[in-house]
Amino acid sequence: MNRPLEKTLTCVVLAGGRSQRMQTDSLLGDKFLLSLDQQPILSHVISRLAPQTARIVLNAGGAPQRFSQFALPVIEDCFGIQAGPLSGILTAMRYAAADQFVVTAAADTPFFPTDLVAQLTKQQMATQADVVFASSFGQVHPTFGLWCTSLADDLQNWLESGEHASVKRYAQRKISAAFDFAAQILPSGVEFDPFFNINTPDDLDKARYLLKELAR
Predict the structure, then answer these.
(1) Does an H or E element contain 139, and which?
(2) What are the counts of helices (DSSP H) followed by strands (DSSP E) for the chain?
(3) Average pLDDT of 184-194?
(4) What does each C-alpha distance from 195 to 56, 90, 147 come to in angstroms?
(5) Which of the chain's ends, N or C, has fewer CB atoms near its CB within 10 Å?
(6) Mind listing the pLDDT tens digit for each residue in 97-156?
(7) Rg of the chain's alpha carbons, rounded to an integer?
(8) Cα 73 to Cα 55: distance, rounded to the nearest angstrom
(9) Residue 189 CB partners (closer than 8 Å, separation 6+)
(10) 21-59 per-residue burial string, b: 16 or more CB within 10 A, e: under 16
């Protein structure tokens, strides 16, 4: 029996950000390694992805030893940090070049939907798009996407030519689509964006609150 397409895909977690807004006297270093309910934020991301996809890989620069607790492959950007998320996306395409598609996800977004990969895959099959982004509350989330790996050479040429490093700007040149995910709802009935990401100490406090509420 054939496995569903989403269960055969590689997902690359983009952990290459500089965490500049998180740098305070009490919160230093990689934001995705900060504690959220006694686990690193990245652990929550990995736990959410694990049932959705065949392979999870981390894309990050610096010393790979700091990720040893996760027991996952770590790949460094193949283009350079100055290119922002597009460099990580290109790295993901190169890593998964044997597959038709690769999925990317952000390392600082612990509540994204548990059907992320399945819905992006279905939307690609329905639209035949080169790129399918996740969206919510009317906003596209460029680091959460399904990418056709055959775009790798074109994307590298785009970056090498010095073009704008915006993910959305690049995707506008291709056939792209989006799948709009519904809000998550707390037991209290309050809605929140499942793609809420942690950029500041206040965001980390909010994430701790959301986790506590969801546990109810």
Answers:
(1) strand 139-148
(2) 6, 11
(3) 94
(4) 19, 22, 19
(5) N
(6) 999 999 999 999 999 999 999 999 999 999 999 999 999 999 999 999 999 999 999 999
(7) 17
(8) 10
(9) none
(10) ebeeeeeeebbbbbebeeebbbbbbbebbeebbebbbbb
